[in-house]
Amino acid sequence: MRPDAYAITIILLAATVESGTILLFPIIGEILTERSGILNLGIEGMMIIGALVGFATAFITGQIYWAFFMGMLAGGLASLIHAFISITLRGNQVVSGLALSIFGLGVTNFYGQEFVNLQLAHTVPQVIIPGLSQIPFFGSILFKQDYMVYLSYILVIITWFILFKTKTGIQLRAVGQNAQAADAMGVNVYKVRYFWTFFGGLMAGAGGAYLTLNCAPFWLDGITAGRGWVAIALVIFARWNPPYALIGAYLFGAINALQFQLQSMGTTIPSALLSMQPYFLTFILIIVATLLVKAKHIGVPKELGIPYAREEK
Amino acid sequence: MGEIVLQAKNISKHFPGVLANDHINFDLRKGEIHTLLGENGAGKTTLMNILDGIYYPDEGEIYLNGKKVDIRSPFEATKNGIGMIHQHFMLVDTLTVLENVVLGLESQGFYLDKKNISEKIAEISKNYNLDINPYAKIWQLSVGEQQRVEIIKTLFRGVKILIMDEPTAVLTPQEADSLFKILRRMIKEDKSIIFISHKLDEVMKISDRITVLRKGKLVGTVDKKEINQKELAKMMVGREVLFRLDRNPIRRKGEVLKIEDLETHNDKGIKILKGVNFSIHGGEIFGLAGVSGNGQKELAEVIVGLRRAIAGKVYIKGEEVTNLCPKAITKEGTNYIPPDRLKVGLVPNLSTVENAILRRYDREPISRGIFLNYEEAAKYTRELIKQFNIMVPRENVPVKFLSGGNLQKLILAREIREEPALLIAVHPSRGLDVGATEFIRKKLLEERDQGVAILLISEDLEELLMISDRIGVIYEGEIVGMVDIDSANINEIGLMMAGVHKNPLLKGEENVKV
Ligand SMILES: Nc1ncnc2c1ncn2[C@@H]1O[C@H](COP(=O)(O)OP(=O)(O)O)[C@@H](O)[C@H]1O
Ligand SMILES: [Mg+2]
């Protein structure tokens, strides 16, 4: 490979990871939320709330990490609306989730007015990990990133570990697979569902904040551009297993990065057509996933979307 | 016998429209097997769910070893040494045996020490003869094995009081016997067992004392030694019970259904029928026995067109109907009483009238072009209601509010009125009270006398022996035995159901004397 082609590849792949991280957070969150039996279609809304809160905090205080945390927290708080409706009130989860998405877009549209077209002075700083970043090729892609990206790596491992190796994971999976049995065995179904729905909200908020703090450090209405919906689709692609979320998120990130690269190189392909590619890819991934998940009952949490009440028949 | 360990006083529990428990008193002694006997809907499960903390009583108190307790959840029940094995197992089928055993246990650390846990499970297995692989996923296990997992779960938690809700309903007679051995072993170790059943013979076999419930009320508690089966039946039903149905001699007609080397997949994509062969003649009831999950359900679905056959053929009156759509198969004269009344048999939120006309809404006189003739539909429904003695509050009430017996009568009426050549009935009397059960069985016999070929799929051996003319046994997707009713023997059938005995002489017709 010629040196400049090599360099471009590295830059592209590093951008892939960054762009993929925006999705990786919410996908992981939604995987665990859905594992508990709650379908939260409000990711788009929680992400954009996280994006605005993160951006505004950074803009006002200049504290990037503090801003990330606030964005995350905002997503978490937003998810509690959905948790209350679907767990406590046993409402329709599809309707509640859609409402949350619409709410998120509306609310940020309103409160974001004064930030439109403003830019952040600083984005998330790069943190090079000594040692690991020296690994040829991969080192420059994976370990010359920032703390949020490293956090996402750790989350993939931790959530996988929790799901399959711990007591907490068994409870989570049991609640999503057979809430009645879990209840009969003394697991507090409501508590588990609240907790993991909140966790999903935190993650969606994190994804949104990472978007405005790093990848697109300015504010625009609807800046998440449907990424929340893509995340929901990629949960299916990941078959509710965190490590597979990496593949989906980074594939999406790669297309995104490539599209930006092509645009900046001045291609003749219309930009609208290019921007469509990631969403087109989502469709293909879903089809692939659906074909893969042929032994269907093994993947989908059986209680997904079904409210639980102890004395109901 | 030991002292009283558990006492329930004046327990009452309402559900919308029913008083499921009406001031029930019940006590349990140390080291006894105390049976709770009653028909379906008598309130047995409700009472036990209250002891297990799943339901909270409207009224009444529970005492453990003389101390009043307030059990608010299954978790607290476990802490008090009470464990319950539900009729529908409380197992998470995508988790392993080991994971199910530790689910909900406080004593486990955050990280699961699987090696340590599996050693403990192995010890319990050895002690009680409960052979199981701790790393198997629940969905891979047979029903009998799943029950063992449930027992291990309670032993692992060290329960002193074990409640088993109709544990033998899903077992072969032999499996039931080995369960009884396990239960006897447990009471030797001073555990106490509440055993729920409505099968009188096994109640007489296993119990020390028996408490009878009827329609939510306590009928009484008796010592096993002081009562016989007939008196028990009377206590349970409130009247004399017929143990036999009169049956006319068989008048076999031409062949109606013929199945050749039939194979199909189940929902998990695993081959569940592995070359099934048999045929049924007009005027006979062919009973198919087997433990659930051996392919019965799938067999019925393939015949009526709800599931694709991957190999083999189905003929009705000589015409091949394999993999035709359900409507075409119905046209050939096949009607179906599915195992699940409210999921497959009826549309829960539609009214009695709308459900009654599901087979003929598209035909004159109920159909009038693109319109429905509601008058005709109601007239037809009233006919069915009268003829089959169906109790409906009002014709326009959603059927989900009818009782099980009336739902089943409605389905039976709708299907029989189509004058089928072949009627497939899957668990037609499951969950019904004695009256409705008798009614359904009599109707099936009437249809048989009219010359209809009937495939009766049931897990209730008594039912099969009572009304079938021939009995086939299905095991792991194959017919492993076929006997004429006159030579049928319950033990032999039980062994075939467990896959122990095979009757190699099978290929369709050998056993049929026309
Ligand atoms: N969760 C529930 N909601 C409404 N009705 C119920 C519920 N559980 C039981 N019932 C009703 O209470 C009565 C007793 O039911 P159950 O205790 O299950 O009887 P059994 O176990 O003796 O067959 C039945 O009429 C049943 O329909
Ligand atoms: Mg019951």
In short:
The complex is a heterodimer of chains A (about 325) and B (about 525). By secondary structure, chain A is mainly α.
What topology does this entry show?
The complex is a heterodimer of chains A (313) and B (514).
Chain A lengths: L2 H33 L7 H19 L2 H25 L4 H19 L26 H5 L4 H19 L1 H11 L1 H6 L4 H27 L11 H11 L4 H23 L6 H22 L21
Chain B lengths: L3 E12 L2 E12 L3 E5 L6 H8 L7 E6 L2 E3 L4 H6 L2 E4 L11 H6 L11 H15 L14 H14 L4 E4 L8 H16 L3 E6 L2 H7 L2 E6 L2 E7 L5 H9 L17 E11 L5 E11 L3 E5 L6 H9 L4 E8 L2 E2 L5 H6 L2 E4 L3 H5 L6 H5 L10 E2 L2 E2 L1 H14 L16 H13 L5 E5 L7 H16 L3 E5 L3 H7 L2 E6 L2 E7 L5 H8 L17
Parallel strand pairs in B: 3-8, 3-9, 6-7, 7-8, 13-20, 13-21, 16-19, 19-20
Antiparallel strand pairs in B: 1-2, 1-4, 4-5, 9-10, 11-12, 11-14, 14-15, 17-18, 21-22
Bound molecules: adenosine-5'-diphosphate and magnesium ion (MG).
**SS elements, strand count of chain B:** 22
Global geometry of chain A: globular
Q: Give the class-level CATH name of the largest domain in chain B.
A: Alpha Beta
The best one-word shape of chain B is globular
Following the backbone from N to C, one meets helices and strands of chain A in this order, namely: HHHHHHHHHHHH
Query: What would you report as the Rg of chain A, rounded to the nearest angstrom?
Result: 20 Å
Helix amount of chain B: 25-40%
The name of the CATH architecture of the largest domain in chain B is: 3-Layer(aba) Sandwich
Note the quaternary state here.
heterodimer
- Category by helix and strand content of chain A: mainly alpha
Q: What are the bound molecules?
A: adenosine-5'-diphosphate, magnesium ion
**CATH topology group of the largest domain in chain B:** Rossmann fold
Rg result of chain B:
24 Å
Number of strands of chain A: 0
Describe what you observe in this structure.
The complex is a heterodimer of chains A (313) and B (514). Chain A has 313 residues and is mostly helical. Chain A has one domain: ABC transporter involved in vitamin B12 uptake, BtuC (Orthogonal Bundle). Chain A is built from twelve helices and no strands. Chain A has helices at residues 3-35, 43-61, 64-88, 93-111, 138-142, 147-165, 167-177, 179-184, 189-215, 227-237, 242-264, 271-292. Chain A is globular, with a radius of gyration of 20 Å. Chain B is α/β, with parallel strands linked by helices and 514 residues long. Chain B folds into three domains: 4-237, Rossmann fold (3-Layer(aba) Sandwich); 242-333 and 420-514, 3-Layer(aba) Sandwich (Rossmann fold), CATH 3.40.50.300; 342-419, no CATH class. Helix content of chain B is 32%, strand content 26%. In chain B, a hairpin with a 2-residue loop joins β17 (367-368) and β18 (371-372). In chain B, α14 packs parallel to α15 (434-449). Chain B is globular. The model of chain B is unreliable at 507-514 (pLDDT under 50). Magnesium ion is lined by residues 44-45, 87, 165 of chain B.
